[in-house]
Amino acid sequence: MFMTQPDTRQQLRQQVRQQRSALSHSQQQEASQAILDLLQHDPNIANMQHIALYLAFDGEVNLTGLIEWLWQQNKHVYVPLIDPHQDGQMCFHRYQATSPMQTNRFGISEPVFDKSQVTTSQQLDVVLAPLVAFDSQGNRLGMGGGYYDRLLATINGEQPLVIGMAHDCQQINQVPVQAWDQPLKQIITPSKHWRW
Fold this sequence. Notes:
The chain is built from 5 helices and 12 strands. By secondary structure, it is of the alpha/beta class. The protein has an 8-stranded mixed sheet with strand order 6-3-2-1-7-10-11-12, sandwiched between helices. Strands 4-5 form a two-stranded antiparallel sheet. It is globular and about 40 Å long.
């Protein structure tokens, strides 16, 4: 396993986030539509009922169209929420058109916490996870908070399936890996569905 200094990872995060933020509005829309088209025709998604995804922030692939389509298909949609009762932990909260929303300490929109609307990762069929950068081996570089790495470390076996979501410009030659990093088995970009 390739180890690296944290400052190298931080520099990579900044570089890739700048590239992602430089995408025009039309490029962002095209990317969102391409990913929506791909997922609408994925037979695995058609058979899933409990789908966790994210509300786009900082140039991430926008999944609003996918969320609306999933609601039309009567799927249960969940989004990440920083757990107010467990420091450093993330949970998945049911997300509906009527969900009361708030902005968390990172400036990300999330539902107002309601324990009755929280689900465990084992009850989910799939998690569509954001990332900052990825490589052709399925290694992901996140924002640096470790929330998804801690979540991925708790998942045993195939349930839920975790798929990274990214723009094509977020692929790099090699993600500098740390011991706690959890590689992904699938990543979807507008031009390719990667599987390992």
